[in-house]
Design goal:
The complex is a heterodimer. By secondary structure, chain A is α+β, with helices and mostly antiparallel strands. Chain A has a single domain, classed as Lipocalin. In chain A, about 15% of the residues lie in helices and about 50% in strands. Chain A has an 11-stranded antiparallel β-sheet with strand order 1-4-5-7-8-9-10-11-2-3-6, with helices on one face. The longest helix of chain A is centred in the first third of the chain and has 20 residues. By secondary structure, chain B is mainly alpha-helical. Chain B is about 65% helix and about 0% strand. Chain B contains 4 helices and 2 strands; from the N terminus they run αααββα. In chain B, strand 1 and strand 2 form a beta hairpin. Classes of the chains: A alpha+beta, B mainly alpha. Chains A and B meet through strand 3 and helix 2 of A and helix 2 of B. The complex binds protoporphyrin IX containing FE.
Chain lengths: ~180, ~180
């Protein structure tokens, strides 16, 4: 009896822990995702997008468990060629030296209805802890993560020299993202 | 001194608006040329921002001036002027009004399409006229330059004609716009 009971117990425990161990990792589908930014120029909002990005998000039954994403700062598109050129230059993203901005989560907390990823953002050679609040929803048969965060651009050296003047070019940058994951919801 | 125009002279309000707009338009020509010549940087942002705010003030003042013209008719041109001269004067004045509206309007369209909206002297957000569009922005920029160049050209004619009235013909036409002269008894 003892022996059989033990087998049943092991099976039950194994079954219960199975979904948690089988991480369901999916790639971000760039065609259905977006990353945009907004900051103030001379007191007015100025917006732009990043066109090339990607990454992977791992899911469990309750939400996301791991996030690894990147973007190519050279894909910045603020709608004006001369401004895009400046943003790729050494005062801003210095894309030749730092061709990649990356974020990876260390842990993810659920604070329904949102989740918060705690991790590191690496941008222009500067690695800093960053919490990213996001929501996860299932839309059109896909999993979509979206959120907004505020970055202090000066902490990452985005806009050095005269561009560190936050009266004319705001220091706070609002980043909005929406990532549709490949595969079914 | 009267507020309203008489059949002999412009009133104080029309004169005041004329000279205020004259000073601002010259300031705008200088400011625009100076700012557009600066390299992309904080100084360019600063001066172009002032140029945009001041230009919108000109637009508002010109509209006010036209409105006042409807309320209080300007003095007629004297019979001493030939038909051709009167035609030239009336046509120039109409074109000046048209360009005083078209030039800042094209600037406003340009700023809107470029995504570089205006916060009026830091006091309030000016609405955009059109959505951001790099293609259109280039078009509106050329329009702004074109209208401004035409305006400058017409101003040369306008000022030349005024000086001719004052110093060659000595027919008191220019004096009608000068606040410190009295109409002949
Ligand atoms: C009476 C009104 C105005 C006058 C006389 C004027 C005149 C000028 C002039 C002379 C320039 C330099 C053009 C060049 O580079 O050759 C300029 C540039 C410019 N103006 Fe205006 N302007 C007026 C109103 C406005 C307004 C209302 C706006 C926007 C709200 C505006 C936006 C601009 C911008 C953005 C430029 C820079 C163009 C560039 O990038 O080269 N202007 N303006």
């Amino acid at each position: 009896m003892m022996y059989r009971g033990g087998v049943v117990l092991v099976l039950v425990v194994a079954a219960a822990s199975l979904p948690a161990h089988a991480e369901d990792c999916r790639s971000v589908d760039p065609a259905r995702s977006s990353v945009s930014f907004e900051l103030e120029q001379a007191g007015s909002p100025f917006r732009g997008d990043f066109r090339r990005f990607g990454g992977e998000v791992c899911l469990s039954g309750t939400g996301a468990t791991r996030i690894e994403v990147w973007l190519d700062p050279a894909s910045v598109d603020a709608g004006l060629p001369e401004i895009d050129a400046a943003l790729k230059g050494s005062d801003f993203f210095a894309v030749e030296r730092y061709p990649r901005v990356a974020y990876s989560s260390r842990s993810i907390e659920s604070t329904a209805p949102m989740q918060i990823a705690r991790g590191m953002l690496k941008m222009k050679g500067e690695s800093r802890p960053l919490d990213v609040p996001f929501s996860l929803r299932r839309a059109d048969g896909h999993v979509v993560l979206s959120g907004t965060l505020i970055l202090d651009r000066l902490k990452y050296g985005i806009g050095t020299g005269e561009w560190s003047n936050t009266k004319w070019l705001g220091g706070e940058v609002k980043v909005k993202f929406s990532a549709t994951l490949s595969g079914p919801s | 001194m009267r507020w309203r125009n008489t059949d002999q002279s412009y009133g104080i309000l029309a004169q005041g608006l004329h000279w205020l707009i004259a000073v601002l338009v010259f300031a705008q020509l200088g400011l625009g040329l100076y700012a557009a010549g600066l390299p992309l940087g904080i100084a360019r942002l600063e001066w172009l921002t002032r140029h945009k705010s001041l230009g919108l003030a000109v637009l508002a003042l010109v509209l006010l001036r036209l409105l006042w013209r409807l309320v209080s008719a300007p003095p007629a041109l004297p019979e001493s002027m030939s038909k051709r001269e009167r035609f030239a004067a009336v046509t120039t004045h109409r074109l000046l009004y048209a360009l005083l509206i078209a030039a800042p309007l094209a600037g406003w369209l340009y700023a809107s399409a470029a995504g570089l909206s205006v916060n009026w002297f830091g006091l309030f957000q000016v609405p955009d006229l059109v959505a951001k569009n790099a293609h259109r922005a280039a078009l509106y920029k050329s329009l702004h330059h074109g209208f401004v160049a035409l305006l400058a050209l017409l101003l040369v004619g306008h000022i030349g004609a005024a000086l001719r009235h004052a110093f060659v013909l000595r027919d008191r036409i220019m004096h009608r716009m000068l606040p410190w002269t009295r109409p002949p008894a």
